[in-house]
Write a structure and sequence with these properties.
Layout (H helix, E strand, L loop, with lengths): L7 H26 L6 H8 L3 H22 L3 H4 L1 H21 L3 H33 L6 H28 L6 H19 L25 H23 L1 H7 L6 H21 L5 H24 L3 H29 L5 H26 L5 H27 L1
Length: about 400
């Protein structure tokens, strides 16, 4: 029997194409997860539910993400990256169908939960997949391309989803249907893209015994792991604020009901995060870390000032600055965990990091939702900013201690 061996340069080309295909899939899947964000005011008018209900709907999504990370975020380390991506995309396609066919509040909640399940399966798996494809394509290169592309696909996708959905909602006749039709097509194409990418995980001869994923992040430098985890939590707390309550605040307190503006508001935050990740690659790790902390803290102060003075310009400027800082902090966290985790535990470690990050997405937002029932939104944001500044101060102290 003759065994045909693939030429090394052909294998490298396949992994190079696969890298960009999986990056595109990652971007589309994350973009779909934020499609409802600029549409929440429309859902509120249609069903008559409150801002607190919006936070519950958003929290259900985050609970879906965390549940999926716990149950399946790590299994691609032995089942293969593509199998998990197929399952994740299948869940998102099912959610898109529900958005189209079940438009009341229970349908919205169910679809958001399914979306969260898909995103939880996809984030850690796609990140590990991109790193392995990058190394197979450019074995001698450093990890800069992987860090920039994976983080940009994540944050850029989150921002692109809101911008596209807001634009479609503003100019089409069926604003609660057309965005989901568009993404249903994109998700179907994503399944084809995954099929065209080469697998990077060889199934072990003996499959490990299944166990749920705990918050386990492999790595010898435990202080670095703690700093990365808290940084990811703080970064996603800012992102959660904008993907849940910001559009309603802009439409209500700031009196700007435009759906395009609602999408643009969120896009500014995620776009700034993705851009800051791209341009910070030449900085030293310490400079990135310090710059991210300072930018996020300063942005929160400007953001809060904009809310107190009802200034849209200050609100957007603060969101952009906070988003830029959060993007850098999250990039540093992913790079730290991906570089320090053993290959056999890379998916599991990244799943642990995303588990912490998505906890930051849900816990502060739920707190804001509960607070909004008793105090004005401007007061609850003051509390949020104070807590976040204290958390960032703790991260800075840990980082300085580790540096010494």
């Amino acid at each position: 029997m003759t065994v045909l061996l693939e030429r090394p340069h052909l294998s490298s080309q396949r992994h190079g194409r696969g890298f960009w295909l999986i990056a595109a899939v990652y971007l589309v899947a994350l973009a779909f997860s934020t499609v409802p964000t600029p549409l929440y005011p429309l859902y509120q008018r249609a069903d008559g539910f409150s801002a607190f209900t919006v936070t519950v709907v958003f929290a259900v999504y985050a609970v879906g993400v965390i549940t999926s990370l716990v149950l399946a975020g790590h299994v691609s380390d032995w089942t293969g990256r593509r199998r998990v991506l197929y399952a994740a995309l299948g869940l998102e396609i099912a959610a898109a169908v529900l958005f189209l066919t079940w438009t009341t509040l229970p349908g919205l909640i169910t679809a958001r939960f399914l979306t969260g399940l898909g995103v939880g399966m996809l984030t850690a798996t796609a990140t590990a997949y991109l790193l392995e494809l990058h190394k197979a394509h450019r074995p001698e290169a450093n990890g800069t391309r992987f860090e920039v592309v994976s983080s940009a696909a994540n944050l850029g996708g989150l921002g692109a989803g809101t911008l596209l959905a807001g634009g479609l909602a503003q100019f089409v006749t069926s604003p609660l249907r057309t965005p989901y039709v568009v993404f249903l097509v994109l998700l179907a194409l994503s399944v084809i893209a995954v099929a065209a990418a080469p697998e990077t995980v060889d199934a072990p001869a003996t499959r490990p015994r299944y166990r749920p994923q705990g918050v386990r992040i492999a790595g010898r430098d435990r202080t670095a792991v703690v700093v990365a985890g808290v940084s990811a939590f703080a970064a996603f707390a800012v992102f959660g604020l904008f993907t849940s309550l910001a559009p309603s605040f802009v439409a209500g307190a700031l009196h700007h009901p435009s759906r395009v503006l609602a999408g643009l508001t969120v896009f500014v935050v995620f776009g700034a995060g993705a851009a800051s990740q791209a341009v910070s690659g030449r900085l030293t790790p310490q400079a990135r870390f310090s710059g991210g902390l300072i930018a996020q803290a300063a942005g929160l102060v400007v953001l809060t000032t904009g809310m107190q003075t009802a200034s849209l310009a200050s609100f957007l400027a603060g969101g952009a600055l906070a988003g830029a800082g959060a993007g850098i902090l999250f990039k540093s966290a992913v790079g730290t965990i991906a570089a320090n985790a053993p290959t056999a535990q890379r998916g599991e470690s990244l799943a642990g990091l995303f588990l912490i990050a998505y906890s930051g997405l849900v816990v502060p937002v739920l707190g804001l939702g509960v607070a909004s029932r008793y105090v004005p939104s401007t007061t609850s944001i003051l509390w949020f900013t104070g807590i976040m500044l204290a958390l960032l101060g703790g991260v800075a102290w840990l980082g300085l201690r580790r540096g010494r």
